[in-house]
Amino acid sequence: MENDSWSRFEEACRACVKCPLCETRRQVVIGRGEPRRVPLLLVGEGPGEQEDIQGQAFVGRAGKLLDLLMTGLRFDPDDWYIANIVKCRPPGNREPTDEEAAACLPWLRWQVRTLKPAILVCLGRTAARHLVDKDIRITAARGQWVEKPGFLVMPTWHPAAVLRDPGKKIDLFKDMEQVRETVEELRRNGTWTSG
Ligand code: URA
């Protein structure tokens, strides 16, 4: 991909005033990972306090848990990128409103078109509501593939939900294990190539 267009994208995100979250943010959190073609894009809800301070997605407690899980499952760090439904922290870590999400989603769509992932993982209900189905019930939907034009979607628990309820850890582990197996399969059968 052209580094130029990614830099211009970042610049545009940082100047964004399309919703009221721009008034309270410290930083715009574009994502975390190398901006290149990846088989896997993880999507959370929105930056929390640490992310707002550090300017990177998933660097707080939930992110640390996710990193442990991804390492434990032997995901190659070059194989995934992580972003959020909204790029600016909602005050008090509340759920972003539908208007905030709608204003922000074009930025995420640009990232999807550019990174061209084969699999998108929705971490938690908010991501699944905005990317799969407004009325989705994450309890029922998690762990089951949803086919979208151009990619597969796996809804699962948000790591913050696992921190609140450790009983959910095994589900998140199993769902991400399915994801890793599918990444391997797509590579083996040539459906996903980095070129
Ligand atoms: N929770 C999210 O949904 N996103 C982050 O970046 C951090 C915590």
Question: TL;DR?
Answer:
The protein has 195 residues and is an alpha/beta fold. It has 8 helices and 5 strands, in the order H-E-H-H-E-H-E-H-H-E-E-H-H. The chain has a single domain, classed as Uracil-DNA Glycosylase, subunit E.
Any overview of this molecule?
There is one protein chain. This protein is of the alpha/beta class and 195 residues long. The chain is 44% helix and 12% strand. It has 8 helices and 5 strands; from the N terminus they run H-E-H-H-E-H-E-H-H-E-E-H-H. Strand 4 (146-148) and strand 5 (151-156) form a beta hairpin. It is globular. Residues 44-48, 51, 57-58, 60, 62-63, 84, 160 line the site of uracil.
Ends distance? 10 Å
Mean pLDDT: 97
List the uncertain runs. none
Tell me, what is the CATH class?
Alpha Beta
The number of strands is 5
- What do we call the CATH topology? Uracil-DNA Glycosylase, subunit E
Q: Classify the secondary structure makeup into a structural class.
A: alpha/beta
- Architecture in CATH? 3-Layer(aba) Sandwich
Total discrete domains: 1
Instruction: Give the SSE string.
Output: HEHHEHEHHEEHH
Give helix % range: 40-55%
| Biggest beta sheet summary | 5 strands, mixed
How would you write the strand order of the largest sheet? 2-1-3-5-4
Q: Helix count, per DSSP?
A: 8
The CATH superfamily title: Uracil-DNA glycosylase-like domain
What's the arrangement of secondary structure elements?
Layout: H1 3-14, E1 40-44, H2 49-54, H3 61-72, E2 80-84, H4 98-115, E3 119-123, H5 125-131, H6 138-141, E4 146-148, E5 151-156, H7 159-164, H8 169-188
Parallel strand pairs: 1-2, 1-3, 3-5
Antiparallel strand pairs: 4-5
The site of uracil has 13 residues, from helix 3.
